């Protein structure tokens, strides 16, 4: 293995296709191990900085790295669980351990954590990594969620589960299409745990997931640097009146906004042509569907019914998203845009007839610069161009 480790150290910054080509000339080396380690290192540099800084971490197959939580989102989950009433003395079980990122960060906050993983190879890698990291309060179970539930006699304060797609080549939109099937298992899980925290992909519909699950008490829609990463559902044994939905965009300054769907439905919406300032909510708010609640909270007017951009005469502070000063509003016509002399701009589409690529081509504009151009549909269903700068 010394030769493989030496190869990894020399080539860890190169692209995977380039590495694969080089390895084709070295049949004596373990190709799969090297590819997994270099891919893991490259992903971990930003996603898992603590793991990246430890030279003894072993990385598994590519899919386990792709699907695992980031260090920041895993840390955020520990805060959610602490705020749900658990103490440092609590015992948590991770029913779908995977690469173990969530398990590891849970173990830093709670007295005892149990990790489940049916894949023997991945199970052994994670067990070795946790030993390397000095995580000594983790119990390991090489079994499936279903088999564990059938044979377990232990009680836990909370169960964490991250169901995956049945077929990795297909997108799924319902929890019942994932494995383990949390819809079928939630009753059994609540027999061994007081609460369940469920992680899902942002692609799943939130309202549909609430209908499928029972007793959802709280939801978190989590973005990292304005990229929506996951949606979390806290399930209790008692039926709440309605789940509170918390949106958070983790960044240099965390942006938080909370609402519920009843209030969202009852909000009145005011519309306006673009005024002096333009607002684009962060991705968590857009994913959660707080389209009217956000306008009411910050006293903003909406550009159009299905155009999720907002406007105001005066600048509103602490808006959970991006804020812009409007310079001009034009009809979507290349001749009108050409008169502005803008050759570079950052283009965003909201409820628009063309894609960003099509807009760039029509307006003869490339990416970059200090201008932010929003292509949108106005109140009269006309395509418009809103030229702005950051406020």
UniProtKB/TrEMBL annotation:
Residues 321-389 form the THUMP-like domain. GO terms for biological process: methylation. Residues 277-320 form the PG-1098 ferredoxin-like domain. GO terms for molecular function: methyltransferase activity. Keywords: Methyltransferase, Transferase. It comes from Vicingus serpentipes. InterPro entries: PG_1098_Fer, SAM-dependent_MTases_sf, Thump-like. This is Class I SAM-dependent methyltransferase. Gene3D superfamilies: Methyltransferase PG1098, N-terminal domain (1.10.10.1110), Vaccinia Virus protein VP39 (3.40.50.150). The lineage of its organism: Bacteria, Pseudomonadati, Bacteroidota, Flavobacteriia, Flavobacteriales.
């Amino acid at each position: 293995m010394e030769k493989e480790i030496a190869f990894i150290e020399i080539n860890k910054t190169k692209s995977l296709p380039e590495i694969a080509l080089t390895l084709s000339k070295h049949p004596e080396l373990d190709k799969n191990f090297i590819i997994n380690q270099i891919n893991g290192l490259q992903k971990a540099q930003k996603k898992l900085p603590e793991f990246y800084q430890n030279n003894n971490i072993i990385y598994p197959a590519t899919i386990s790295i792709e699907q695992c939580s980031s260090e920041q989102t895993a840390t955020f989950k520990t805060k959610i669980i602490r705020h749900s009433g658990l103490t440092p003395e609590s015992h948590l079980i991770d029913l779908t351990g995977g690469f173990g990122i969530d398990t590891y960060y849970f173990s830093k906050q709670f007295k005892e954590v149990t990790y489940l993983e049916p894949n023997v190879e991945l199970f052994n890698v994670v067990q070795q990594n946790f030993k390397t990291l000095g995580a000594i309060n983790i119990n390991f179970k090489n079994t499936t969620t279903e088999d564990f539930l059938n044979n377990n006699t232990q009680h836990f304060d909370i169960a964490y589960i991250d169901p995956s797609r049945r077929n990795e080549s297909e997108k799924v939109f319902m929890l019942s299409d994932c494995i383990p099937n949390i819809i079928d298992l939630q009753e059994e899980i609540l027999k061994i745990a007081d609460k369940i925290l469920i992680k899902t992909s942002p692609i799943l519909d939130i309202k549909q997931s609430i209908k499928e699950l029972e007793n959802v008490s709280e939801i978190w829609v989590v973005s990292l640097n304005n990229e929506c990463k996951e949606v979390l559902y806290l399930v209790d044994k008692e039926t709440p009146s309605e789940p509170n939905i918390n949106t958070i965009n983790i960044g240099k300054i965390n942006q938080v906004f909370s609402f519920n769907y009843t209030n969202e439905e009852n909000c009145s919406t005011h519309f306006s042509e673009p005024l002096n300032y333009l607002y684009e909510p962060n991705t968590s708010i857009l994913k959660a569907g707080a389209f009217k609640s956000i306008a009411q909270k910050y006293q903003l007017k909406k550009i159009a019914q299905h155009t999720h951009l907002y406007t105001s005469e005066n600048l509103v502070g602490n808006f959970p998203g991006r804020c812009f000063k409007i310079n001009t509003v034009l009809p979507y016509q290349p001749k009108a845009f050409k008169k502005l002399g803008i050759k570079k701009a950052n283009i965003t589409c909201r409820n628009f007839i063309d894609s960003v690529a099509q807009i760039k081509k029509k307006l003869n504009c490339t990416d970059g610069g200090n201008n932010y151009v929003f292509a949108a549909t106005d109140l009269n269903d006309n395509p418009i161009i809103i030229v702005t700068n950051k406020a």
